Structure formats: structure tokens, C-alpha cells
Automatic annotation (TrEMBL):
Higher taxonomy: Bacteria, Pseudomonadati, Campylobacterota, Epsilonproteobacteria, Campylobacterales
Coiled-coil segments: none
Gene designation: mltG
Name the record gives this protein: Endolytic transglycosylase MltG
Entries under InterPro entries matching the protein: MLTG-like (IPR003770)
GO biological process, one term: cell wall organization
Organism: Arcobacter sp. AZ-2023
Top-level division of the source organism's lineage: Bacteria
This protein's UniProt keywords: Cell membrane, Cell wall biogenesis/degradation, Lyase, Membrane, Transmembrane, Transmembrane helix
Molecular function terms from GO: lyase activity
């Protein structure tokens, strides 16, 4: 795991020992450590540093869940972490996250396969280009081209922003998106014909952007409001509807 490799290098720890401890005590294969900033003193053992990160993450997960739903169900919460990890992989910007989330929710509700490359960027493939061969031959639940629903485990560490977007998606009819080579942002569409036109618009267009340019429309503005407002000021969708959509 790349994250553990970085910890081992930064703190002069044994990467194999870190991996063994992680494998023995992690709740899921990924998503157990929140993507956040941590203050870690030099001299921590492999056990201490991982248990500290696990406990800090679980504390934040519990606080966030209780603030939204009034309770913390770890098993159900990790379905949101799986959903948030897809959003984390796919969104070009933080403000895109609730829009990507709406696509995921809409496809799940229609019993459509997600068909998202980001879900195949898991574990040792986290930084790999997803090829047609991978799509054909990967038999895991992470292959959302072959399997409907979410992967059984998160595909990466997630931020609180991604979790927020997973729970508070914008209201849209979007079912498709493709990254625009000119802007670095995604073009969203309700139907496959428009989606294919957006794909065709990228043909022959080099990826010239060095920084994504955010030019908001009405749905973008809704997403911006979701991300900037505190969760305590937002009404969560029905917990039943949400859990049904991520089961």
C-alpha cells in the first residue's frame, strides 16, 4: 500500500511490519484512515502509529455520522465510505463531488452498472491506467463495468468532503460524465447520445489545461452551496432512501 510505504520512509519504520499490522486490524481493505492532516511525533512504533490513525479516523467518522444522522452504524457507514471513495477518485474538484455523487446515486437507483474507471484503481493498481484488458479480465467487485452496485470495500482513503458529497448529492438527472480535455472539468449528461457527443468533442484535443477552470452553472452552484455549508445546516435525505441506494 502506497500510503504505508510513505509512512515507513518518513518515519524510518518497517513497511512489511506496517502492512502486517494493517492487514490484521483494518476494518476494510481501504478507507480505514481518513485523508487528512495528522501531527505525528517522531519515534512512534509501527503499532502505535497505525492504531493512532485508526482511532482518530473512527472518532471523526462517528462524530460526522452522528452530526448528520444522530447515530453511527459502522457497517452502513462504510457503504458511504465506499461511495465516497468512488467520488474521491472521479471528481476533478471538490465542488464537482456532489455532482459526481448524483451520477452514482442515479445509476444505482436505475440498477445500472457504474462503469467507472476509478473503481479499478484499487490497491496495487491505485496509480495504474485502466486498460480494456483490465476491464475484461478483472473479476473482483471493484470492476464496476462487470458488476452492478458499489465495490464491497472502499477503493481509496477518502476526505470528509467526499463523504459529505456522498450523503448530500445535488438533484440532477445526470447519468454520464466525461472529462473535458480543454478545461479539466467533467461534462455531465442525462442521455448516452449527449455523452457520446461529449466524448467525440475530445477527439484530437490535447489536454492543455494546467489547472482546472471552474465555471459554475445552476447545478454547479447547488454543489458549491452543499460543499461550503456546514452539515448541521443541511437536511440529509431520508436515511432509508440513502441506505437503499448504497446497499
Amino acid at each position: 500500500m502506497l500510503f504505508l510505504k510513505k509512512i515507513a520512509e518518513e518515519f524510518n519504520l518497517d513497511e512489511n511490519k506496517l502492512q502486517k499490522i494493517y492487514d490484521e486490524h483494518a476494518y476494510k481493505l481501504d478507507g480505514n484512515i481518513l485523508a487528512d492532516s495528522y501531527s505525528l511525533p517522531v519515534g512512534m512504533s509501527e503499532e502505535y502509529i497505525l492504531f493512532y490513525l485508526f482511532s482518530q479516523t473512527n472518532k471523526k467518522y462517528e462524530e460526522f455520522s452522528k452530526k448528520i444522522f444522530g447515530k453511527y452504524d459502522k457497517e452502513k457507514w462504510f457503504r458511504y465510505i465506499s461511495l465516497a471513495s468512488v467520488i474521491q477518485k472521479e471528481a476533478a474538484t471538490t465542488n464537482e463531488m456532489p455532482i459526481i455523487a448524483s451520477v452514482v446515486h442515479n445509476r444505482l437507483k436505475k440498477n445500472m452498472a457504474l462503469q467507472m474507471d476509478g473503481t479499478l484503481n484499487y490497491g496495487k493498481y491505485s496509480n495504474s491506467v485502466v486498460t480494456a484488458d483490465r476491464i475484461r479480465n478483472d473479476e473482483t467487485s471493484y470492476n464496476t463495468y462487470k458488476n452492478k452496485g458499489l465495490p464491497k470495500d472502499p477503493v481509496c482513503a477518502v476526505s470528509l468532503d467526499a463523504i459529505k458529497a456522498a450523503i448530500f448529492p445535488v438533484k440532477s438527472n445526470y447519468l454520464y460524465f466525461v472529462r473535458d480535455n480543454k478545461t479539466g472539468l467533467h461534462k455531465f449528461s442525462n442521455d448516452y447520445e449527449t455523452h457520446q457527443a461529449n466524448i467525440n468533442a475530445n477527439i484530437g484535443v490535447a489536454k492543455t489545461y494546467t489547472k482546472v477552470n471552474d465555471k459554475p452553472n445552476d447545478i454547479d452552484n447547488e454543489a458549491i452551496d452543499i460543499m461550503k455549508n456546514d452539515i448541521s445546516n443541511q437536511k440529509a435525505p431520508s436515511i432509508k432512501d440513502l441506505f437503499n441506494s448504497v446497499n
